[in-house]
Design a protein that fits this description.
With 198 residues, this protein is mainly beta. The chain has a single domain, classed as 4-Layer Sandwich (Metallo-beta-lactamase, Chain A), CATH 3.60.15. The chain is globular and about 40 Å long. The two termini are 17 Å apart.
Length: 198
């Protein structure tokens, strides 16, 4: 990691705790959706699948913003379960691993670390896909990482759907070198420890 502060001005709020569940009708998949407030920016990470969009909007409003206030969306990767609700936030600039998109404006950049605010950085985290990124938000309490490097607190140790599996271990190590709290793609937030899959 470069230049990621251990204490910063961001505040982090989980709007929707992700999950993966079997259902006779098909798979039930919900992404973790996270709100980050910093430096006048209203950032939503992975505005993906949820059972009830009204509940997602209500969770956002409980922290102050309404959908039109959201300035930035971050896609950890481009799977629909992490992106499908982007249109709920019509004024937001979307950020992924190599560009930012506002309306019809595509602003490319070299893949790599990218600062959204002084306390919020995007970093490459390949593993689940080659293009995965993690969002690191430095708060007064520590650094939160929104990432699909883990599905949940228990891993799994090997991502069963990874398309860049050889890179996953290095991505996890980079995240763990900085993060004090992990918000995984499909599970509750957790504090990493010795049992955290690497």
């Amino acid at each position: 990691m470069t230049d990621t502060p251990t204490a910063g001005s961001a505040s982090v709020h989980i709007l929707h705790e992700g999950y993966v569940r079997d259902d006779p009708a098909g798979d039930r998949v919900g992404s973790s959706v996270t709100l980050i407030l910093d430096a006048g920016r209203v950032i939503v990470v992975d505005p993906g699948m949820v059972a009830d969009r009204d509940e997602l909007i209500a969770a956002l409003a409980a922290h102050g913003p309404v959908p039109g206030d959201v300035t930035d969306l971050v896609f950890s990767h481009h799977h629909p379960d992490h992106t499908v609700n982007a249109a709920l936030f019509p004024g937001a600039t979307i950020h992924d691993h190599w560009a930012s998109y506002t309306g019809d404006l595509w602003v490319g950049r070299e893949p790599g670390e990218f600062s959204l605010t002084p306390s919020v950085r995007l970093m490459p985290a390949p593993g689940h896909t080659p293009e995965d990124i993690a969002t690191l938000a430095a708060t007064q309490e520590g650094v939160y990482a929104c990432t699909h490097a883990w599905w949940g607190p228990d891993g799994p140790a090997e991502d069963p759907l990874a398309t860049a599996a050889p890179a996953l271990r290095a991505s996890r190590e980079r995240i763990l070198a900085t993060a004090t709290v992990i918000i995984p793609g499909h599970g509750p937030a957790f504090r990493p420890g010795p049992a955290t899959p690497r």
